[in-house]
User: Which sequence fits this backbone?
C-alpha cells in the first residue's frame, strides 16, 4: 500500500526558472494539501485541492504560485520565476476527507534556488 | 498570528522515562487535533489524534490529552525509547480544512 509519493525529492533551480513539484496521493484519497516549511520554521499551509477543484488557496502567495489536481495524474505545485526566498521543503499530504480524517504526508521536495 | 503554539523548542528525557510534549491553541473553533513526528529530511509521520469531544486518546505508548477549557493538549510517551528522538509537531484543524501547525519540539531521548 504505497504512501504519498512526491517527486523530485530534491530540485535545484536558478533564479527566474520554473519549478514543478509533483504529488501522488495515497490510493483512495481524493483530498490533497500542500504545505511549505521554511528553514527553522513549522509547516505552513498553502493550498487544498480535490480532483479538478481548488478548495482553499488562502496560504498561496498571490503571484508566481499555482496548483492543480487534474482528473488524471498527480497534483502539481508550480512556482514561476523562482527567487531565493522560495527555497524550502514542500510537503504534500492526502486524506480521505471528512472532519476526523488524518492527513498523511509525503517525503517532501527540497527546493534550492541558486 | 500563531494559533497553535509549542512553547518548548526542545526537550531531553532519559530512556525509559515519560516524555510530555505540550501544545496550546487560541482558536476555540478547532475540533480535531493531531500529533506528528518528523525526522530530518523526511515528511511528518502521523502519530495520534483526538476529537474535541474527547479528553483522552491512547494508542500503545502514546496518549494525547485535551483540555478544552485551557485550550491545551499534551502528548505523553511512555516509556521513551531512543527511536522517539525526533521533532514533534502538534496540529489542529476545523472540519475538513487545512492543518495549522505548531513550531515543533525537538525531543532527545538520552540512553
Assistant:
Amino acid at each position: 500500500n504505497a504512501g504519498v509519493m512526491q517527486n523530485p525529492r530534491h530540485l535545484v533551480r536558478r533564479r527566474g526558472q520554473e519549478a514543478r513539484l509533483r504529488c501522488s496521493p495515497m490510493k483512495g484519497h481524493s483530498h490533497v494539501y500542500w504545505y511549505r516549511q521554511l528553514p527553522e520554521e513549522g509547516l505552513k499551509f498553502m493550498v487544498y485541492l480535490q480532483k479538478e477543484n481548488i478548495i482553499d488557496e488562502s496560504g498561496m502567495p498571490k503571484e508566481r504560485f499555482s496548483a492543480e489536481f487534474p482528473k488524471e495524474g498527480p497534483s502539481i505545485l508550480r512556482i514561476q520565476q523562482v527567487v531565493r526566498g522560495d527555497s524550502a521543503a514542500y510537503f504534500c499530504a492526502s486524506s480521505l476527507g471528512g472532519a476526523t480524517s488524518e492527513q498523511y504526508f509525503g517525503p517532501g521536495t527540497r527546493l534550492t534556488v541558486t | 498570528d500563531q494559533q497553535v503554539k509549542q512553547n518548548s523548542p526542545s526537550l531531553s528525557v532519559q530512556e525509559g522515562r515519560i516524555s510530555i510534549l505540550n501544545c496550546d491553541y487560541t482558536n476555540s473553533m478547532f475540533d480535531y487535533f493531531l500529533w506528528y513526528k518528523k525526522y530530518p529530511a523526511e515528511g511528518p509521520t502521523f502519530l495520534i489524534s483526538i476529537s474535541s469531544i474527547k479528553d483522552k486518546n491512547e494508542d500503545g505508548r502514546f496518549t494525547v490529552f485535551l483540555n478544552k477549557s485551557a485550550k491545551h493538549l499534551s502528548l505523553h510517551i511512555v516509556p521513551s525509547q531512543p527511536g522517539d528522538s525526533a521533532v514533534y509537531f502538534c496540529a489542529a484543524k476545523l472540519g475538513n480544512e487545512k492543518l495549522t501547525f505548531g513550531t515543533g519540539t525537538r525531543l532527545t531521548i538520552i540512553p
Notes: Chain B is about 0% helix and 55% strand. The radius of gyration of chain B is 13 Å. The first strand of chain B starts at residue 4 and ends at 5.
